[in-house]
Write a structure and sequence with these properties.
single chain, alpha+beta, Beta-lactamase, four-stranded mixed sheet, 10 helices, about 30% helix, hydrolase, hydrolase activity, Beta-lactamase family protein, Beta-lactam/transpept-like, Beta-lactam-related
Length: about 375
């Protein structure tokens, strides 16, 4: 097995209790044995060291390909904090500010009443166009993308509501990054965020030269109870597009390492990507206890991930999480988070898009077992 971080001989050396982690291992094995999902990969890290990385089950059902440590998993919304990080880089360079209007940097975006939308509102799902759709033709034709994001129409006044922008906001973020950098957002993300951290083969947004054979295809349940690949999301178009809201792929180690960087004030493995001040600012709760109208609960949005906060309940991060814990789940399949108080990061990735309420319930159990192990 290949490791991105120095690995401890035993998780207890990094201050984890053995019993909760044994329960976690047993729970995931049971999920796979029961057919809850074909395969899974997890990674747990603390203070820049890997406590463990484990794989379970099958990556590709049709060929009976087992999961290994190099398997890449679809992240869905786990992609959003990565795209946001590209904008963080531009803030650090003094090229944009979170307080700037998007239209100040993205030509044509100020049409249809969008002129006052700020980058902060864009990243916190307060921009006012959650239902906007970008055509498949624009996934690769980014001149067309710029035209389509400019043509987006408002649904409500920016900043007045919090409604999860499933895909729309991060297409705008990608177009904004391209306008400022002059580069394809997929290239800029790789060059400015992933490669400096040594994660360019463990986090992929837009497949170009990375072996597609490493991918665990995403599956879903059919009406007859069987499971099958989601063909539209395993197509060449999808894989190469690197959809900025949902088209990223990663290994569990890669995501755990990325969150190690975030909770270590922007530094990982001797490389400083962000200043401590930037990370402190960008990982605070900007939406308070305002209810997200899609999820029907407060989501406590930071400028990329979301924050645990102190309310009794939280989505995906585990109710036992420290209030400063940040992270992001992926539609019906995954979660990754980091806790700056303990220095712990964790990633849990699977290849079946499951439905509610089971999906949220299992993330609660999985994350809480990790929180319970922290000493």
């Amino acid at each position: 097995m290949t490791f991105l971080m120095p690995i401890a001989e035993d998780a207890t050396q990094l201050g984890f209790a053995a019993e909760p982690l044994a329960h976690l291992d047993a729970l995931i094995r049971r999920h796979v044995a029961e057919g809850r999902y074909p395969g899974c990969q997890i990674a747990l890290a603390r203070h820049g060291r890997l406590a463990f990385a484990k794989t379970y089950g099958t990556a590709v059902i049709e060929s009976a390909t087992p999961v290994d440590d190099r398997t890449l998993w679809q992240l869905y919304s786990g992609t959003k904090p990565l795209i946001a990080a590209l904008l963080w880089v531009l803030v650090e360079e003094g090229r944009i500010s979170f307080a700037d209007r998007v239209a100040d940097h993205l030509p044509g975006f100020g049409t249809n009443g969008k002129g006052e939308i700020t980058i902060l509102q864009l990243l916190t799902h307060q921009a006012g166009f959650p239902s906007a759709v970008i055509s498949e033709a624009a996934w690769q034709d980014h001149a067309l993308l710029a035209k389509e994001v400019a043509a987006i129409e408002l649904e409500w006044e920016p900043g007045s509501r919090t409604v999860y922008h499933v895909r729309s906001a991060h297409w705008v973020a990608a177009a904004l990054a391209e306008a400022v950098t002059g580069k394809d957002f997929r290239v800029a993300l790789k060059e400015r965020v992933l490669t400096p951290l040594g994660l360019e083969r463990d986090i992929v947004v837009g497949f170009a030269g990375i072996e597609k054979s490493r991918i665990a295809p995403m599956y879903a349940c059919r009406d007859d109870g069987s499971i099958g690949q989601i063909e539209s999301e395993n197509s060449a178009l999808w894989l190469e597009a690197g959809i900025p809201s949902s088209g990223g792929y990663a290994t569990a180690q890669g995501l755990a390492a990325y969150y190690q960087m975030l909770i270590n004030s922007g530094e990982f493995s001797g490389v400083r990507l962000f200043s401590p001040r930037l990370v402190s600012y960008a990982t605070q709760n900007f939406t308070g206890e305002r209810v997200d109208e899609l999820f029907k609960v407060p989501m406590r949005r930071a400028l990329g991930p979301h924050v645990r906060g102190e309310a009794p309940l939280v989505r995906s991060l585990g109710t036992l999480a420290h209030p400063r814990t940040i992270g992001q789940g992926g539609n019906g399949c995954s979660v990754a988070w980091g806790d700056p108080d303990s220095g712990v990061s964790f990633a849990y990735l699977t290849n079946l898009r499951t439905s509610e309420p089971w999906h949220s319930a299992r993330l609660e159990y999985v994350s809480n077992l990790v929180h319970s192990a922290i000493r």
